[in-house]
Amino acid sequence: MSEQAIYFEDYELGHVRITTGRTITETDFVVHAGHTGDFFPHHMDAEFAKTTPFGQRVAHGTMIFSIGVGLTASLINPVAFSYGYDRLRFVRPVFIGDTIRTRVTISAKDDDPKRQGSGRVVERCEVINQRDEVVLAADHILIAERKSKAT
């Protein structure tokens, strides 16, 4: 992983990047259930899941969020930090064997009302499956220093 200073002014509205893919496995289901305590049958019981509208086990939404965000972590930016996530939605189910990747689009830039020398950048994160269908969407809010603060 490399490090690069990307200041508020460097982010371009509409810029898009897409991560590499990651195939969801049985092990992912088991490990996530163990970490979170979410052993609901929709995720863990194949026979129960057959009786649901999806007909098979569905990945934990929180797991897809975690993996999808993790896929975006490819660069350390020492002049920005994550402020959080808004508007998280589980759009479509993800199943064992699906391959996901994350499309990140710079969707907004604004002044930060709490920090004079910084701005807020919104990255629209869309986790997509192997059919290019959006399965999860969220807005990632970054606080990024302005170049003027750095000089």
TrEMBL record:
InterPro entries, alphabetized: HotDog_dom_sf, MaoC-like_dom, MCH/BMMD
Domain (MaoC-like): residue spans on this chain:
19-112
Q: Which SUPFAM superfamilies match?
A: Thioesterase/thiol ester dehydrase-isomerase (SSF54637)
**Which Gene3D superfamilies does the annotation name?**
Hotdog Thioesterase
User: Where does the UniProt annotation place the signal sequence?
Assistant: none
Q: Which PANTHER family match?
A: BETA-METHYLMALYL-COA DEHYDRATASE (PTHR43664:SF1), MONOAMINE OXIDASE-RELATED (PTHR43664)
Q: State the protein's name.
A: Dehydratase
Organism equals Phyllobacterium endophyticum
